[in-house]
Amino acid sequence: MLQMLMNPNKKFNKPGKPAPKPTPKPKAEPVKFKIDAEPNAAFNWFPGHMLKAMREIKAKINAVDLVIEIRDARVPIVSGNPTLWESIGSKARLILLNKTNLADPAAVAKWDAWFKEKGEPYLFVNCLDKNSLKQVLSYARKIIEDKRRACNNEVEQKSKYGFMIIGLPNTGKSTFINSVANRNATKKADKPGQTRHQLWVDVDEHLQLLDTPGVMPPELAVEEHRFWLSAINAIPDEIIGEEDPACYLVRFLLKNKSEAFKERYKLESFDMSLDETLTKIATVRGCLKQKGLPDLDRVFKLILLDFRAGELGKVCFSLPPKN
């Protein structure tokens, strides 16, 4: 009776009847993440300002001597815009494959041989490197002069040049122009799509550059390509989200046995599953919620930021076609 008064909510079993056994708690299941990273549909992204930019580029094409298309060396073909390239017609052109400092040197060597075989004027460069820029300007002037001589061998060579700079968002157009002009002549930002209008930049009395907004192809028919372009930040994260591109990167880096990736996140091996890897990254980098659960949104952001900063190793997403 005293015990009942002290704790009236406690239940007592009748004499002679054994106390019921507590129901065992079910074992906690390992955390599973459902990631949709398989090709399933064509991807379209062509905002209205890009259509306008495309028309303006065509309208100004005759005002320049050379068109320079800046691509990303990690994605040599997919970071180009064939629709825009075709609209240039017979205008002298030069492809700059930028960010070689972030690209796998062995793959770059193979791409270099491939472009050389195609016969299209090109250079692999790092637009932050002054020596690369000198090489670009020298080669660009040679292309223009050779074409002028081919059209009219007796024409007097001009001393003034105009270059139009085109390319996908965030491939390095503004970096190239600012480095050549040696000043912040254009708006430069980590977020793609910041340049919305054409802008003439006077480098010196001999050279003018025309900056143009980044223009995506009207359609990306291969699902994997959108992951590539999202990873290099050509497509803004808010367009397709961060989950699929981040998970694609994890799978890609595990498959290609990236030592930098393994070391960055202190992974035990390359044989880890996607779930195990995401959980490990969350633990190592402190991306945890209550009760120690991984904060996947933070993990996805972290992976993309680290990759774009070059912390996960030098990468090329594909090798040249064999045909």
Automatic annotation (TrEMBL):
Signal peptide (residue range): none
A molecular function (GO) term: GTP binding
Residue ranges constituting the G domain according to the UniProt record: 164-219
A Pfam short name: MMR_HSR1
GTP-binding as UniProt keyword: yes
Subcellular location: Cytoplasm
A cellular-component GO term for this protein: cytoplasm
Organism domain of life: Bacteria
Chief location: cytoplasm
Region described as Disordered: spans on this chain: 1-29
Binding site for GTP: 170-175, 214
Keywords (A to Z) from UniProt: Cytoplasm, GTP-binding, Nucleotide-binding
BP term (GO), one: translation
Role, per record: Required for a late step of 50S ribosomal subunit assembly. Has GTPase activity.
Similarity field: Belongs to the TRAFAC class YlqF/YawG GTPase family. MTG1 subfamily.
Protein name: Ribosome biogenesis GTPase A
Organism encoding this protein: Peredibacter starrii
